[in-house]
Amino acid sequence: MSERIQDIARAARRASVKVADLPGAVRNAVLLDLAERIGACQPEILAANAQDLAAAEAAGVDGPKLKRLLLTPESLAQMREGLRQVAALPDPVGQVTRSYTVPSGLHVEKVRTPLGVIAMIYEARPGVTVDAFALCFKAGNACLLKGGREADRSNRVLAGLIRVSLAAAGAPEDAMAALTSSDREELRTMLTLSDDIDLVIPRGGEALIRFVHEHARIPTIQHFKGVCHVFVDRAADLDKALAIVATGKTSSPATCNTTECVLIHADVAPAFVPRLVERAASDGVTIRADERFAALAGAAAHVEPATDGDWGTEYLDLILAARVVEDFEAALAHIHHHTSNHTEAIVTEDRPTADAFCRRVRSSCVLVNASTRFNDGFQLGLGAEIGISTSRIHAYGPMGLEGLTIERFVVVGDGQTR
Hints:
By secondary structure, the chain is of the alpha/beta class. The chain is built from 14 helices and 16 strands.
């Protein structure tokens, strides 16, 4: 088994050299061709997905994971549109980000270049197979895609279409390899192949990400969880705050950029807490509250006492942790202690306070008077993302095409020596 994964990784390494040299027009042609093939093969894809869903239900897979596993004509249409959008994005490969001449007369440029081979490990979502390939390939990389066993049949069909589109454009088919085995030993082996794989991106539950982090001998993008905070400052517009907190929880509760905890300045808590409690009741949200919040909430049945374990928890559900804090410093202390370095927001009309929040909170995305749900590659203008990095490395936050390249130096001289 280990020899098989080594052979696949080495083939991807060889293919990556060719992919990096492909003209941008060829890479775009592959993506556009794939969009058409997905449309033409929709019945086959949906049939495979139906088999995956039936097997997952029989195995007792829970509802949220089944929802992530499901493919529909609408989601396939969105997948196709996503491919077209990625193809239309500016090509990052070869992009000059800085150009200057040093005293010796050497002309120096910093130029974007592909990372090489990217291994993507993910659970349940078969759409990631197409999304991850599209972004990696557009950025000039080869990729190894290790999807979850729940989506095995769906992933096999989609991966087969990808390889057909690569071959049709004269690109190396080994630029994408789908690993379908659920053998953990195979995964452990892959995580040690530092000669052939340049970056590992795990995308899934915290257990998967910790497994990858603990066993990888390759640089890894970490994203253990998204514990996203909103601080309602004493100078907040409470109408804005209510909308930001409420929709940050309810618009998509199972995503990593969902608001999980609200911190409320004591000066505005008497006015804000009752409004939030009423809104949460209408939205079906349970609040896990500290004593100060609970005292202002009254006898609301959906307000429960918080435990120490509620601070720093990623619920991925209609549950919101809530705490009244004495002041700005207390809010920062809470965030610094419980942050996952994902997303934090402040609601305030006081510019110096907003500026101080942005300086002192070091998460991958900080927002002023906006929902945590905006920490998303598409929403932030990247076109698409392969994941959100909470590691302070070359990419921090949503990883779009630029995050799948690195900058190197290209230097032109005229005989200079030293």
